[in-house]
Amino acid sequence: MSQRSLITVGVSVVAASLALSACGSRDADTGTGGGGGTGSAAGNKTATIGVIAPLSGDLSAMGKGIQHSVELAVKQANDSGAIPGWTLKVDAKDDEAKPETGKNAATALAGDNNVVGVVGTLNSSVAQNVQPVLATAKIVQVSPANTNPSLSRGKDYLTAPKRTYPTYFRTCTTDDVQGPFAAKYLLDQGIKQVATIHDKKTYGQGLVDAFTTYFKAHGGTVVAAETINPDDSNYQNVISKVKGSAPKAVYYGGEYPQMGPLSQQAKAAGLNVPFMGGDGVYDPKYIQLAGATATGDLATSVGAPTDSLEKGKEFLAAYEKAGYAEPSSAYGAYAYDAANAIIEGLKTSLKGASDAQGARQATIDAVGKVNFQGVTGDVAFDQYGDSKTRVLTVYKVEGGKWVPAKTEDMAKAGS
């Protein structure tokens, strides 16, 4: 997710694996500071994969799913003896979805000589502070959820893309794909008058910008463009402005803790049109916050539904068997693939290495060349570190659940 801070096929309703909660943690044998597994052997050298994600607060449901999915990948690698002579561990840090806290987490991980890679972050705004710290320490970073294009291709990514940090990769697709995907879906539904609202954060603003550009270029009209303060709880002022513009839908750039109440308050005020958001909204907690009037609201998310893919089913079964306290969340599969991208790289970089720190640059180089079939599809990176996969899904609230409405490969669609 770009602020979290990026897109279906006829499948079953989103599985319980995506029904998130925000409590508990995992025992040390598969989790923070541990990550051993039965394949560990006395005398093995140790390498650590860090995790930076919101493990507390409003977005902890997603953060915990990321953490546990990395723990699962590490446990499986240890159990199978994937890297002879080495035991992998996980060190998960809570960034609280705050940029400065994320920077502190990155600094702590960079100071640990055993750390060879980091999975994270969830939020693009946090990634902006984390990237330079990990790059300076030559630690590879693979995000399962950052969707802002500038993180990999720079601020001029549309006209003059330039890789920002050679250490940075991601397994999800980006807002310049997700925003147009959402716009295309609404236009295909005959909706040509839309109001936009965003939360002024990196993710939300970037998503709305990408949506707006495509929507206008293909015959749509943005009848109102408003913002909210994410710390507010009463949105009547912006709702009044938007309602007066008579939109047929509202596109929101931000996350579920704000869009849920926004949608509920808007419907109560008589603005009875679908609200649509990005992957930062795709969470069962959105439906809880938006209430009964959430029916018909929409969200896009990266990839096809995990439970519609063969490897996705295997991942969900292994995750359930591991007994984690929280479900894998919307980004669990992408975090699992991110961890395995690092592990694949370590198979090369740690071979013959005397210590983890000395293998950091070799790990960066090796991760850039990985190419394997992951839970979410082919895992491989382009020259900017972005995922080569451009699959996204639209989900619709029906019967109190997120139901897949459409999955499309935007690379094949030419977008």
From TrEMBL:
UniProt cross-references to InterPro entries, sorted A to Z: Leu-bd (IPR028081), Peripla_BP_I (IPR028082)
Domain Leucine-binding protein: 47-400
Keywords: Signal
Keyword Signal attached: yes
Homology family: Belongs to the leucine-binding protein family.
Protein name per its UniProtKB record: Branched chain amino acid ABC transporter substrate-binding protein
UniProt organism field: Arsenicicoccus piscis
